[in-house]
């Protein structure tokens, strides 16, 4: 009897060991869209994430990236995820405040002083809490990638103090906090989807827009602008969102691989974006644009003038959310 049991166990082990490798993975094509172009640092992240998925799934989980808003803008693509007709999108948080108002906290002007603060908040309990809210809206945030600190470009005049914004037609993301931040500075702020920005700048329908240097470079905005002002007025995260209706049909192993590899892509993207922003700024200067860096005093003036936006939007975002992130930042800065 004992011999029979040993033989059976050995046989069971042999069968398991011989089971096809990656049996818990299915051949899947994962469409992931973004509004920026493939030469943006998001492209670096996608490449690193795919290499990780190849190793974990034996090549069964394949990312199919769509660039330049080919599958629609941030909000449109995100809605497609919620209805289960698209797998993933790398989107800014800002256009999604209609889905989850708490995301607006990231749009408060001058909230983060540097990227390290942002990473600590996003990758910690605060980011997890936000992810729970997103999951309740049918969205799995696999990781916080980096859009980055936003700077102004315009075609009409140098901006070296907030009064220079007076009457300037500035495109902002579809988000009332950004709208109020620029209206409060005297600008004529216009909410607009990212995909419409280049042609609006080119036709002078708008004078200005604001984005990180890598975006001003890779989306070619610098080709139709004359002035840059380094304002660092807000840090926007990218969300690597996955459709919850689709994610729930994946095996535990597939879900774990996607989460782990999105974090690998995040870390790679964050590690290169600093240098790529510097390279983009050099390219923008070489193209002949005049670059102004706001003085510390002027940044402080704009920061103080913008604080009214916190009060105006605190309740819409959630007073507990705003108080919590400000308390965490105060702790980090001690
Ligand atoms: C790209 C956008 C962009 C954002 C904006 O899809 O809309 O200005 O900064 O990166 O998400």
UniProtKB/TrEMBL annotation:
<dbReference type="InterPro" id="IPR004682">
    <property type="entry name" value="TRAP_DctP"/>
</dbReference>
<keyword id="KW-0614">Plasmid</keyword>
<protein>
    <submittedName>
        <fullName>TRAP transporter substrate-binding protein</fullName>
    </submittedName>
</protein>
<keyword id="KW-0732">Signal</keyword>
<keyword id="KW-0813">Transport</keyword>
<comment type="similarity">
    <text>Belongs to the bacterial solute-binding protein 7 family.</text>
</comment>
<dbReference type="Pfam" id="PF03480">
    <property type="entry name" value="DctP"/>
</dbReference>
<dbReference type="InterPro" id="IPR038404">
    <property type="entry name" value="TRAP_DctP_sf"/>
</dbReference>
<dbReference type="InterPro" id="IPR018389">
    <property type="entry name" value="DctP_fam"/>
</dbReference>
<feature type="signal peptide">
    <location>
        <begin position="1"/>
        <end position="23"/>
    </location>
</feature>
